[in-house]
Amino acid sequence: MKSLYGRQFLLTAGMILISFAMLGVSFFVLSYRYTLQETRQSIERNTDDVARFTANVRAEGVGVRSVAYQLYIANVAHISNAFVLITEADGEMVLCSDGVTVTSGLSGQYIPQDIAEQVVQQGDYKGMTTLGGLFPEKRFVAGTPITITTQNIITGQTEQTLAGVAYMAAEVSDLTELWRAFTSIFFFTAVVVLCIAFITSSITSLRQTKPLKEIAETARKFGHGEYEVRVTGYENRRDEVGELAEAFNAMADSISKSEERRSEFVANISHELKTPMTTIAGFSDGILDGTIPQEKERAALQTISSETRRLSRLVRRMLDLSRLQSAENVTAQEQFDVSEVMLRVLVSLETKVNARRLDVDTQLPDAPVEVWGDPDGITQVCYNLLDNAIKFSDEGSTMGISITTKGGKAYVAVRNHGQTIPPEELAMIFDRFHKSDKSRSVDRDGVGLGLYIVKTILNNHKENITVTSQDGVTEFVFTLTLA
Q1: What is the distance between the alpha carbons of residues 442 and 82, in angstroms, rounded to a whole number?
Q2: In this predicted structure, what is the pLDDT of residue 143?
Q3: pTM surpassing 0.70?
Q4: Whole-number Å distance between alpha carbons of 384 and 361
Q5: Alpha-carbon distance 166 to 52, whole Å?
Q6: What is the number of H-type helices and E-type strands within the chain?
Q7: CA distances from 280 to 264, 285, 296, 302, 310 (A)
Q8: Are 311 and 277 in contact (CB under 8 A)?
Q9: Distance from C-alpha of 404 to C-alpha of 480, rounded to nearest angstrom
Q10: pLDDT at 216 over 90
Q11: pLDDT for position 136
């Protein structure tokens, strides 16, 4: 399997190579064609000028042996960096100049017949040729007929006479050498740029993959149970790698805390299950082996029955908690009156209220308070909070219930008068199996899951619950969304 570094480097290198190749080919072709075309057009224009000038001077009776004419031809050849040839209509060469010297009197020397015939028939010639071996290599040759225009005195008609042909032959080897030199510079520059790009790409790829490897190694250690390991060294990076490292550390912290809570949960449930089971086993063995007198067997059986019911409640609460935390648990959203739910729960607890001789101060709105949520879940919340308030209220005190609305939310409050909960206890009051020392002595039947279930149900509703305790007054307040 290829590494991310290798794939990233190959991808970047491939893109750079393809881009340079396409750019280079396009630039070379366009520049070569443009330069060659400019040269050809210049030669063609100069050939036309030579033909017109020659036609004009011959029309005036000036021959090609004229010093002024030959000087003109030499200057044109020198400026154009090309050979100038003047021939008769049949292709016999009359004059030749390379820009330095002018040669005349070339009778008997002819250019290829096909070229001469093409000029006469088509009116010009353009092509690459050696002119029948006149030049050692092929050159670009342009030919234009020299046409003398005269007027017949008798008929008054204009007549054109072919007096010869003007040719210009330019070397393209100089252009090729220039293009090759330019190509060499381009390739050198391209190689330097590619080397820099490859080095930069390599460094960038390594910088991207190194932290990923470190995070992967940290994840492997974390998976092997080393929950204290964290990704360090990337706290100041403000890119995706820094975000990934921060997210991994946050995940690790969360999993570590979950593992701590799981260990604590196992320890708590082991303790909670061990206590009633030890009691049941002890009294049962005492009855069976006769250690407990017969007159005390009934009391022992009552203890066994009580501990069995307590064990049953613990298992039932655990099943309820498992259902609430299940990924398949979906809170049903229905519209219901939370005031009615609270009063119905309060009536169901009337026996417990009367047993502790409590007064109930209810401050509920006259109109129904319609909210959205799961009626069964909210009923469980109200039952647990009211049952908890009854247990820990001072006997003969007042327990309060109130419902207010504000900002699209219903605020349901349950308060009781009793022992003040220490601040350090408030932070853990919604934890699983959490019971203060006071509650362990008073609430012998409690298992420490009531408030945790309350918190879980409200979390499923995406609602909040808060608790305050001062001067002997403890108050729980939770929210619901108004319908």
Answers
A1: 119
A2: 93
A3: no
A4: 18
A5: 9
A6: 12, 13
A7: 25, 9, 15, 10, 11
A8: yes
A9: 11
A10: no
A11: 86
**Token representation of residue 343:** 């009063």
What pLDDT was estimated at residue 103?
81
Strand ranges in 395-438 using DSSP code E only, listed in sequence order? 398-406, 409-417
- For the chain, the residue count is 483
CB 309 within 8 A of CB 451: no
* Tokens read off for 446: 């409690």
CA-to-CA distance for 371 and 410, rounded, in angstroms? 7
Beta strands 139-151; 125-129: pairing state: antiparallel
**Class level of CATH domain 334-482:** alpha beta
Query: Residue 322 pLDDT > 90, yes or no?
Result: no
Q: How far is CA 328 from CA 86, 314, 322, 323, 460, in A?
A: 101, 23, 11, 8, 12
Q: Where are the alpha helices (DSSP H) in 157-239?
A: 173-223
**What distance in Å separates the CA atoms of residue 22 and residue 179, rounded to the nearest whole number?**
18
CA–CA dist 389, 397 (Å, integer): 11
Backbone angles phi and psi of 404, in degrees to 5: -130, 160
Strand-strand pairing, 398-406 and 359-363: parallel
For the chain, the maximum distance between any two Cα atoms, rounded to a whole number of angstroms, is 168
Q: Give yes or no for residue 41 having a pLDDT over 80.
A: yes
Q: Are 438 and 376 within 8 A, CB to CB?
A: no
3-state helix, strand, coil in the chain (%, to 5): 55, 20, 25
Residues 6+ apart with CB under 8 A from 483: 335, 370, 371, 372
Every domain of the chain and the residues it spans? 4-177, 230-329, 334-482
CATH no. of 230-329:
1.10.287.130
Joined together, the tokens standing for residue 15 give 């893109």
Q: What is the pLDDT of residues 147-195, one digit of tens each?
A: 888 776 666 677 788 889 999 998 876 656 666 777 777 778 778 877 8
- CATH architecture of the domain with residue range 4-177: 2-Layer Sandwich (3.30)
For 346-404, write each residue's pLDDT tens digit: 988 898 899 999 999 999 998 999 999 988 889 989 988 999 999 999 999 999 999 99
Residue 439: band (very low, low, confident or very high) from pLDDT cuts 50, 70, 90: very low
